[in-house]
Amino acid sequence: MSQVPSQGAMVKGQRSKIKDESDPTPKPEVRNIIAACAAAVDELAASRELVDALEKENEALRSRLETEKQLTELLTELNNTRKSEADALRAAVTAKSDALDAKDAVIASQDKLIKALEKKKSSPWRRLGDVLIGAAVIAVMK
């Protein structure tokens, strides 16, 4: 690196020489270069602003992605819970149906038993006949 002397350390001749170089209007090529540099500086500043904006947008998107991942995880858990609840309800309905079928079978068998007992039930005349036969047997044995 070369060191630039401070203005106070310059000699009078050098000051006038520097002043003389800046007084004339720059050539068109130099003006084009200066304009290009100024445009590049403006573009660089705009690019930096855009990069900052994009970084903020990326951070917001990352945050949204994490939120969506958490939401998906919770919804998956809720879905699994609902599936297991539905399975449990199906099992309960099946057990209820089985219990109702068993109850109907018990009622049907009791109805059959009642009908069979009604058929076996003797009439009063038959009972009277059985009693008279029993009395006759006892009278003969005496």
Characterization of this structure:
The chain has 142 residues and is mostly helical. It has a domain at 14-108. It contains three helices and no strands.
Write the layout of secondary structure elements.
Blueprint: H1 12-22, H2 28-120, H3 124-141
Strand and helix order: HHH
Structural class: mainly alpha
- What percent of residues are in strands? under 5%
Q: Which shape, going by the Cα principal axes? A: rod-shaped
**Biggest sheet features:** none
> What is the overall number of helices?
3
Distance between the termini: 155 Å
Low-pLDDT runs: 1-20
Q: Could you tell me the number of beta strands?
A: 0
Please provide a brief summary of the model.
This protein is mostly helical and 142 residues long. 86% of the residues lie in helices and 0% in strands. It is built from 3 helices and no strands.
Characteristics of this structure?
142 residues, disordered N terminus, 86% helix
